Amino acid sequence: MPGSLVEVQVTGMLREISEEVRINLKDRLREMRHAIRRHRHDTGNASVLPPPPGGRTPFPLPEIDGLVSRAVSVFDDAMTMAETLVPHDGRGHSKPMPFDTYFRPAGNLIDGERAFRRDMYYLAKSMLARRNAVAEPVQEAGFAAVHAAMLRQHGNLFQPLKADAGETERTARAAALCAALLVELLRARPVRPRLPEGRVANVLEAETVLAVSVLAPMALAVALASSDADAESGSDLLDIAALAVEARLNRIMPACRTADPAAELTPIFAMLIFHLR
After folding, report:
1. How far apart are CA 253 and CA 211, in angstroms?
2. CA-to-CA distance for 95 and 87, rounded, in angstroms?
3. Predicted pLDDT of residue 98
């Protein structure tokens, strides 16, 4: 019996280490991909060879620089083609799923975390594109931290509802989880959008507003998927959530600045979920 317990513990440790390596490897590869794309020959920033010291004429010939940038472009195109051939369970890249999918019982916790990291990554990319926002590379490691924080800090919210729970109870639970998720996303900041320098007087405040406008729709989309909203809406839930957040940003922002943001955000999200479901 003790030997079996040790075996289970060691297996669990190895699985956690493997998962951490997997996350870090994916993040490093995406960073490399981001760096490669900056040096494509067709982006207007094709130079990949550093200028020689002293302003001397570069050697080999300058044409070599163009050849290298074209090779970079071919490599980037090949990676893009490979991504299109990888199956994604028929779900697409940015379809939010219910909280219960991401935060499962202990036996399926890793599967839930993987789904959470993957979906949050693509939801974040979709929101950044929607806002035309410049951002630091999005990393799944940040979403892994958010997932762990949700279980650690808000585990009581994942208790299953009674079979006869009514619409009010389901909405209240989804709203509380939505508020908690936004709080943890803002705390970890796995997505860091930024504005061009000199665009506004208070850049820090403007970037905070932009971060909320990107992260809040992601949390709300998951909450809508968790309620009895149309399950076939798919990625449309993100568009619906983005419009709702834009309309209520004047209430969401002050709530985020309070001493207990989760408590202040919950009724706001409850109202939105009730009207959008």
Report:
1. 10
2. 15
3. 93
